[in-house]
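Bench notes, afternoon.
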Amino acid sequence: MRIVCGVLALAMIGFAAVQYNDPDGPFWMVIYLVPAACAAVAALRPDLLRRGIGRIAIAVCLGVAVVATVVFWPTDAFWWRQDVWWESEAAREGMGLMIATVVIALAALPALIRRRSQE
């Protein structure tokens, strides 16, 4: 799982990098760098997510990501089809938040699983 989280961290850094020419690029860079940081910590120092502030931080990040995904959920019909998201920025942004939420959830998963097995 550490390798998966490392790859996801790099992918999210790539997502942030391609926002350089977007008018609201800095906003989306932050949105993509938060899951990148969560995944990087899960890959490099997963013990930090199992206790104290790390556990609270990953829970807050996941909660905020879920709420943001619900708020930015695409309203376009058939938003998952390429001909729709290719034209609709709202659909692309919603899908980006969905991906960010999944990455944070995957970063939190090893800490939660290991935590339960220790109790």
